[in-house]
Specification:
- This protein folds into three domains: about 50 residues, no CATH class; about 90 residues, DNA polymerase, domain 1 (Orthogonal Bundle); about 160 residues, Orthogonal Bundle (hpI Integrase, Chain A), CATH 1.10.443.10.
- It has about 350 residues and is mostly helical.
- It has 14 helices and six strands.
- The protein is elongated and about 90 Å long.
Length: about 350
């Protein structure tokens, strides 16, 4: 055991249970360093010392700053990183100054209650807890700051994902009447492809093959790559939009300045059109629900709907089967055919 100086700071060298340790006293004052060292030796002699984790000296704010800079900003899309910053802002209000080893599951549970009181939706609360839990996991696995993740013992909020809302043919007709021409194309395209808003706005002509009647998509959520067939309606729409001056790098649904159309502009125009058409409780994302529902209503199998809409699994598509029991009639009539053949 002993004190030694490294640069301007005094360090301690000691052994515990047969293992050698080196720890900084974090001071250049030798007398203070000696007192720190004497206290440490006393703890070791009394059997009270154990190797302390860095998390005891780091706050939740330290964790999120490192996570945002070294993980979120590097490994996530710009839009996801931006969302992380928004979610982290709420978390920091409650946990910012707390040391990591002091954050317990009970505190996280209280946080959920407070957020509900503030009016946060179950989905938003779950997003916040997911971000917090992931940051803790990185701190455990990669940075070795802590040994426990308090989030794993906290139950997530219950979210009602089931929303029976899709566009009827009559509503579609009314919506297209009130929408500006550029928005009409996007609405039709969304209904006939099931693509997400960001995918539509990001779509470039390099991803479109009019001869093969396909669209190439780099899946945003899971990183997979898909080549999807398009309907005759979509093919006609794309052929109309493409001109002799169109280049592969041009956006399919570009603005008048030939730039990527802003989501905010699209949302505002969509809301105005919905209001003018007297359509309530409808979101742009519900056009994707409309795509799936119409396929099911026409008897398309759940597996095929899953692949066309690029849902992760068939269970995520099963809710659309409840929209239209008539789509199951041809399947149940197989039983009559068996009886007649007997």
């Amino acid at each position: 055991m002993g004190l030694y100086k490294r640069g301007m700071v005094w360090w301690m060298s000691f052994s515990h249970q047969g293992q050698q340790y080196w720890r900084s006293t974090e001071t250049d004052d030798k007398k203070l360093a000696q007192r720190i060292f004497d206290k440490l030796r006393g703890e070791i002699a009394e059997g009270k010392w154990f190797e302390k984790l860095p998390g005891e000296a780091y706050t939740f704010k330290n964790l999120m700053e490192k996570y945002m800079a070294e993980y979120s900003a590097v490994n996530k899309k710009a839009s996801s990183h931006k969302r992380d910053k928004s979610l982290a802002a709420h978390l920091l209000k409650s946990f910012g100054d707390a040391y990591l080893t002091d954050i317990k599951s009970e505190m996280v549970s209280d946080y959920k209650t407070n957020r509900r009181t503030e009016g946060a939706s179950p989905r938003t609360i779950n997003y916040e807890l997911t971000l917090m839990g992931h940051a803790f996991n990185i701190a455990i696995r990669e940075w070795e700051w802590i040994e426990d993740n308090p989030i794993k013992r906290v139950k997530k909020e219950r979210v009602n994902n089931f929303k029976e809302r899709w566009l009827s043919p009559e509503e579609e007709k009314n919506l297209l009447k009130t929408a500006p021409i550029w928005l009409q194309d996007i609405i039709i395209f969304a209904i006939h492809t099931g693509m997400r808003r960001s995918e539509i706005l990001d779509l470039k002509w390099s991803q479109v093959d009019l001869k093969k009647r396909t669209i190439f998509i780099a899946e945003q959520k899971n990183g997979s790559v898909d080549t999807l067939p398009i309907s005759r309606t979509v093919l006609n729409l794309l052929e109309t939009r493409k001109t002799d001056t169109t280049t592969p790098d041009d956006y399919v649904f570009a603005s008048r300045l030939n730039k990527r159309r802003e989501p905010r502009v699209l949302s505002q125009a969509f809301e105005r059109s919905l209001k003018a058409a007297s359509i309530k409780n409808f979101r742009f994302h519900d056009l994707r629900h409309t795509f799936a529902t119409r396929l099911v209503q026409q008897g398309v199998g759940i597996y095929e709907v899953q692949k066309l809409g690029r849902w992760k699994n068939t269970s995520m598509v099963m809710r659309y089967a409840h929209h239209y029991p008539e789509s199951l009639r041809s399947s149940i009539e197989v039983m009559d055919n068996i009886k007649e053949a007997a």
